[in-house]
Amino acid sequence: MLKQTEGSHAVAEAVALCRPEVICAYPISPQTHIVEGLGEMVKGGEVENCEFINVESEFAAMSVAIGSSATGARTYTATASQGILFMAEAVYNASGLGLPIVMTVANRAIGAPINIWNDHTDALSQRDSGWIQLFAETNQEALDLHIQAFKLAEEVSLPVMVCMDGFILTHAYERVDVPTQEQVDAFLPPYEPRQVLDPKEPVSIGAMVGPEAFSEVRYLAHAKQMQALELIPKLAEEFKTVFGRESGGLTRSYLTDDAETIVVAMGSVLGTIKDTVDEMRAAGEKIGVLGITSYRPFPIDSVRAALQNAQRVVVLEKSLAVGIGGILSTDVRMAMSGLQLRGHTVVAGLGGRAITRKSLRALFAKAARGELEHLTFLDLDWNVVNKQLERERTTRRSGPAAESMLRDVGVIAARIG
Amino acid sequence: MSFQPLHFYQTGTFTVGNRLLAEEDRTVQAEIGRTNSLNSGHRACQGCGEALGARFAIDAAMNAARGRLIAANATGCLEVFSTPYPETSWQIPWIHSLFGNTAAVATGIAAAIKVKKQKGEMGDVRVVAQGGDGGTTDIGFGCLSGMFERNDDVLYICYDNGGYMNTGVQRSSATPPAARTATTMPVGPEPGNAFGQGKFLPAIAMAHEIPYVATATVAGLHDLEYKVTKAMGMRGARYIHILVPCPLGWGAASQDTIKLARLAKETGIFPVFEAERGEVTGVLKIRRQQPVEEYLKLQKRYAHLFGKTPAVETIARLQAAADKNIRKYGLLDQEAN
């Protein structure tokens, strides 16, 4: 059914249609609307046979999820930013134990400085946790990916994060097609766990494993992600058969066939990039876009195939690996190894900084001219940075950096865009 | 062959052999049908109080749950000594997740059971969570308090040996004052652990007004079984705190585990009581009061108190703490004295 609704509510409806059995919730912006929506649906009886638990921390949220998933219940939670860091130990534990929990990450920056707006640093901080990580481009895709995520998680017995841009998607009202219960039931069978805490067949889960088997257990986690690499496109196909639309998959190419410049990105910024590409195509520029939907497992072959005929690649990422540059770029470069390609890393949109078509167009044109540097911070205010560097060079007690820089920017509240 | 005299009572104690009891009063552990939930062959130290406490507690819980029980376990001695896989000692469904999240994992298990029961996919399965004092009073405290506050249907059992014994005997918030640990060495002007306000978790559990809170020791195994059975007869959040001497961490002889647990109770150092909805409903009275020295001097962790010049003041402070417990919980039967 077509609906004009908020991204968070669309996701809440999708999760509800997946017949979850345990949902644990802890508030953190910008994922709050999702669990609020689910809480209301469970309390109001719209979602039957489901326990909604208000926990006391994100660490508890993931821990409750571990307990319920290990007892065979289809389990869901949502978090963002500091929340994912606070639950990090349990995030690794959930995947280590092979528990197919599905979690929405409403992507948000990580402090300090504290910042509630969007970038991808939170999810990417858990890139090696063993979770499958899918990134949604639109609210429709966010909705669809949740339905696929439960199936994927339960097939490979691994947890899945569905990442959607905080505020940009979670709080945006857009038209979405909400499937029927019959459609979702046809796609998603009831959860059949591989392991379960059951008095009828007692098992020990989470025992200590020493050097004699630890590598093998960890390799198995990798092998399962490689299985997911095969399964994700199949699920997208199957999804299309049942729901009649394309959603998910590993990567999505846009005008890449003859492109000399290919921009690689994840999430909602792909929309802005495509608009910019359309403009530049109209002006005769051979430019295309590669969107990464599956960040973990990382589709090396698919990325390589899409990029191999280009001359240059611009990885535009909403994340920063402090001390080296890009996070996504590192993985893209791995896929590019051996290809004669010029690679650029562009760090953009940190902490909610708007990524505009104007900036992108100038950036891509510079890349096409061969003038773009190896690492670029899009729309960085060099005056503010240089002023602070100068302050620190000349004054020992230069004070708290973020506060000084905010003062230099000249507004009290953080400026968006 | 030398003559083996028959004792019905353990010397100097009020412990009576099961054979002298009516059938219905005998322990679960004495029954042929006991489940051996924590089976033999595990790697606990000789004289481990925790292994003994866990064996009695979980078998009693299994008996009360008619064999339908799931256990969540914190990281720590109990987890490590029971499961270097494939040699798990657990005969029941058992999960270890992390050090600090056991109460929350148990909440998740209870939630899943509730839903599965509604759907007719599972019977009435019960949940216990267990951990040591570090995993309970320190790192797991947030999750524990959350579980209490929500009144989730979980029995949490804390095996308190007063320190992080698994990592090499470091101080926890349950380490008693003056005790030596690897991080509170008996050096300097105030040797051993500092005298603080204390963190007596049973009292904090009571402040949550949960259905049931009890303390027990491995010297009173009948009492321990009675409390576990009683707790299992209730719903909601329940907490049992068991004092389990640790020969390694306390620097005590392996054969003194039960004696030390008894002395902890008989000196008033560890009050044994039960409480419902935040109010004390019963105490195990001291039957033959002992001075705290009798308890302290058997343990090398207090050896610095009994040097060439005994630390009279420190011992007096510890005696005062025991006396306070006696007053606060009414541990002495006035008539008996």
UniProtKB/TrEMBL annotation, chain A:
Question: What name is this protein filed under?
Answer: Pyruvate ferredoxin oxidoreductase
Looking up CDD domains in the UniProt record yields: TPP_PYR_PFOR_IOR-alpha_like
Which PANTHER family is this protein grouped with?
A: PYRUVATE-FLAVODOXIN OXIDOREDUCTASE-RELATED
- Give the record's keywords alphabetically: Oxidoreductase, Pyruvate
Report any one BP term from Gene Ontology.
Answer: response to oxidative stress
Recorded GO terms, molecular function?
A: oxidoreductase activity
Keyword check for Hydrolase: no
* Source organism per UniProt: Candidatus Accumulibacter affinis
Q: Which residues form the signal peptide?
A: none
Q: Which gene encodes it?
A: porA
TrEMBL record, chain B:
SUPFAM superfamilies xref list: Thiamin diphosphate-binding fold (THDP-binding) (SSF52518)
Q: Which residues cross the membrane?
A: none
Keywords attached to this Swiss-Prot or TrEMBL record, sorted alphabetically, are:
Oxidoreductase, Pyruvate
Q: Which Pfam families match?
A: TPP_enzyme_C (PF02775)
Give any single GO term for biological process: small molecule metabolic process
**Residues covered by the Thiamine pyrophosphate enzyme TPP-binding domain:** 75-242
Annotated Gene Ontology MF terms? Answer: oxidoreductase activity; thiamine pyrophosphate binding
Give the domain of life: Bacteria
Chain intervals for the UniProt region annotation (Disordered) = 170-189
Residue ranges annotated as compositionally biased, kind Low complexity, are 171-184
UniProt signal peptide:
none
Q: What is this protein called?
A: Pyruvate ferredoxin oxidoreductase
What organism is this sequence from?
Answer: Candidatus Accumulibacter affinis
